[in-house]
Specification:
Layout (H helix, E strand, L loop, with lengths): L1 E8 L1 E6 L10 E11 L4 E6 L5 E7 L3 E14 L15 H6 L23 H8 L8 H15 L1 E2 L10 H7 L1 E2 L1 H14 L4 E8 L17 E7 L6 E5 L4 E2 L4 E7 L8 E6 L4 E4 L9
Parallel strand pairs: 7-8
Antiparallel strand pairs: 1-6, 1-15, 2-5, 2-14, 3-6, 4-5, 9-10, 9-13, 10-11, 11-12
Helix pairs in contact: 2-5, 3-5, 4-5
């Protein structure tokens, strides 16, 4: 990930969330490193509310570019196929009310509006088109994932990082961030807790498999709470698949604002350009 500036920045401060997580029965970070050029004048590490390790750094000297490189080795575990013991939609509020915890993975944090996501009637109407009385929360989540994949076109030129979910919804085009935000809003409009997952996708598909959309950059997908028995599941609406062996988790949040890979401020003027590249290669 690199940034170049038309006019040298006289100083900057940034926060990074790039290192994959270690998650019980899901994935293990074996080793990892992040290098920043120019070398930061100050650097510190902290853990945010959602328990993600983050790094803050400051550059005081003028610089024309900023280059950030992350390397990691991650062991990913295969996920068993879970039977659907999720409640019917009408019974889900009772299960949510039975959760007294406000820990980072509590469903209560993922029901209402969040910094980038405000309920939109059009998206709520769209979501209700996937609901019938006999469907469980998990079935509704899978139905919405499939519908978004069918109705929307992956187009990296159609939107930017600041495009709102409603704008992308009306375009019916966008990238993984757009599809993820739309699906989160759709689920929340139905009273189903949903959050944002930031991570990486396997770059080169296995023999005989199609290449997944979004594999050349950081990817995003959806985390859905399906009741006390099932808990959280993860679905990728960009590719209409459950998150599995090809998905590596970096961060969980309510929306993109909680998991931005690199965010910061700088002293400069003029334009800037950003280049992002990702390679996820299985080790033999």
């Amino acid at each position: 990930m690199s940034y170049s500036y038309d006019v040298p920045a006289s100083g900057s401060r940034h926060v990074m969330r790039l290192m994959p997580l270690s998650l019980s029965n899901r994935q293990r970070l074996v080793a990892g490193s992040i290098t920043v050029s120019p070398t930061p004048d100050e650097q510190s590490h902290f853990v945010d509310f959602f328990q993600h390790p983050a790094t803050s750094f400051m550059l005081r000297t003028p610089h024309e570019m900023l280059d950030i490189r992350m390397q990691a080795r991650v062991q990913v575990e295969s996920q068993p196929i879970a039977a659907d013991f999720s409640p019917l939609l009408a019974d889900l509020p009772e299960e949510i009310s039975g959760v007294w915890s406000l820990a980072p993975d509590s469903p209560h944090h993922f029901l209402g509006d969040s910094p980038r996501l405000t309920q939109a009637r059009e998206i709520g109407d769209y979501a209700r088109g996937c609901v019938t009385p006999q469907l469980t929360a998990m079935q509704i989540a899978h139905a919405l994932c499939a519908r978004i994949h069918k109705d929307f076109t992956y187009d990296s030129d159609a939107t930017t990082v600041d495009t709102t979910p409603l704008e992308a919804f009306r375009l019916k085009r966008g990238v993984c961030q757009d599809f993820t935000h739309i699906m989160i809003l759709a689920l929340r409009s139905l009273g189903i807790p949903a959050g944002y997952v930031s991570g990486f996708l396997r770059t080169i598909p296995p023999p005989g498999k199609e290449r997944l959309e979004g594999a050349d950059a950081m990817h995003a997908w959806v985390r859905v709470w399906c009741g006390e028995t099932i808990g959280w599941i993860e679905l990728d609406p960009t590719n209409d698949i459950p998150a599995g062996m090809d998905h590596i988790v970096v961060a969980y949040g309510r929306d993109y604002s909680d998991v931005v890979p690199v965010i910061g401020v700088l002293k400069s003027y003029g334009g800037q350009r950003a280049v992002q590249a990702v390679d996820v290669i299985p080790l033999k």
